[in-house]
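Tutorial handout. Part one gives the primary structure; part two gives the three-dimensional structure as tokens.
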Amino acid sequence: MKNRFLYSFLFFTVTILIFSTLSFSLTISIYRPFENLTQNSDYDWLNLALPQIIYDLLYPNYDVAFNKPGTDLIVKGRFSPVQGGIELTLDITSVAKGRGIYSVVIGNPNDPLSMRDIVSQFFLERASLGKIPIVEYSRDALMAYYKGIYYKYIGEETYGDSSYPSQAPWKLAINYLREAVKVEPDFKEAYRELAFSFKETKWYAEEVKAWSFYLNLATSTEKKKVSLFVSEAYFNLAYSFYQKGRKDVALSYLIESINYNPKNIKAHYWLARIYYDLGKLNEAKAEWDTVIAMNPNYKSAKYFEEKVKKALKYGKEAYDYFEKGYLAYKRGNMDLAEDYINKAMELNYKFMDTYYWLGRINIERGRYKEALEYLKQGLEVDPSDKKIRYLIKLAKSKMK
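Part two.
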């Protein structure tokens, strides 16, 4: 593989006016698909290949996206038949400088290497971007890549959030992109699009693998740009293992998720829950503290933080029994509630909430003598407990 640098020249005054303000701080939107005016459906894949060429040229040095409204620069395109092949017309609008329309003959689209070079050179000359390294890949790899991009788009448009790898367009997209990296093992853009394909189709294990290959080839700028995607991939993989009961595996993937994005609050949230389930209470508390620091109102973070504090104070086993008892009480199963809370009390006699709830449950069941026995035991542990003293008075009044 070799690098070839394409140099920009100043061709047209209006072009310079439009692009002279182009800088890394500008946002650029490429609207796809480009319009196919050839009346030949065999060229439909160019609808996506041509905008992808420009995207790959600009990424990651510029803030570039597809079909994003409100950007500083907008790129649209169409292509039509001419003598000698296909003519590409770019309609480029700068919010600051206005609009320019430019055309170039790109030749035979079945020669994707030549097509990519012509489009890249054409765009760079008008954008006055300086020199941008273009990595040379083989024709077969590029053709597979662009076909993969086409079917990926069809999959997105057809299935949206209900996408799976077994669906026809997704199957074709994945196969073509895999063919591209098979032909060119260092084809990082193909690994990136493979990763996004696996993300869309919820194939998270393969997504992580694709990102791993991509990161091995990526520049530091590229790594920073995709770090959020990689973090999300590891999170999704972790959650899938958590649902299967593989908390040990989920734990390792959540840590990886946080390594790529320390601000991934979902990863911290589930890491805290798994730490708690595994009895690692101090680690769980640290993660809950992190979640609350990021967002004090995030889901049930305050509830879980309080839970881990009580588990640290009274012991996890005792608190888990107490919580089971409380849930049984809420469901109206008084026998089970009393049994669980009794076990919590036996595990830690200083757990004052157990005396309170055993007293309350027995009062509600009309068993005032038993309630007093529990409440008096609690008062011996902590004579200053006002809730216990209140229930003692209540139980005595009911006995009269």
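Part three, for discussion. Residues 199 and 207 are 6 Å apart (CA to CA). The chain has four domains: 3-136, 138-218, 219-314, 318-399.
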